[in-house]
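Researcher: Quick one. two chains, 243 residues in total.
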Amino acid sequence: MSGRVLEAGLHLLDRQLIDVDGRLAGKVDDLELELPPGGGPPVVTAILSGPGALSRRLGGRLGAWLEAAANRLRDGDEDRPARVSFAVVKRIESAVDLSVAKRELETNRLEAWTREHLIGHLPGAGDAPE
Amino acid sequence: MRLSDLLGADVVDEAGNSAGHVHDVRLVQDGPLVGAFGASLRVDGLIVGRRSIGARLGYERGQMRGPLPVKLVTGWLYHDGRYVAWDRVRAVEEDRILISGSADDLPQPGPSS
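Model:
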């Protein structure tokens, strides 16, 4: 064992995601694991974030309701949580630093939907800073 | 597969005996290269125990130093914590992970970083 050793729950779950501009971009709610085609142990391929990922950890009726709500906000037919590829993870410390801007992430879609459908219709919303 | 498929699952040996539930998953950064992060995180093994209260405080891994009263209580609570290297995992089923060999010969989890 030669690389850095981390424990997924202790060192990754619930950590804050920070985008390249220092903006808060969600939290680590789950991890996607993939078995390499050539065999061997699973490898972490993505961070899953947002209500669609958190719902499975919550379980029960609340989890099912949250997952259904998250799926309704999703573009396309695919039922899966917002995914942040590990290729854009720069560093894992007390927070997880990303190398891309928040607007490029799937995790931004709930905020974008809220801005477009709710906040955007409020009087004076056009004057609000980004 | 997701991390949440592993966390909380019951770990069962070949004889059908439970070794406890998965409290955490140990990762080592020595997998295939992935973007700016470098080597990807590979699953090394499972930290398993019978008691889940406060399992994510890290005391069962042996590297936490204090406060002393908390360390003593958690040391007693987690003395049965065990480590399952991934090469002993035979199957991941819903809420259950089957491992090879006996639950009695699992080592204690060592400290992480």
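The first helix of chain B runs from residue 3 to 6.
Researcher: Thanks, that's what I needed.
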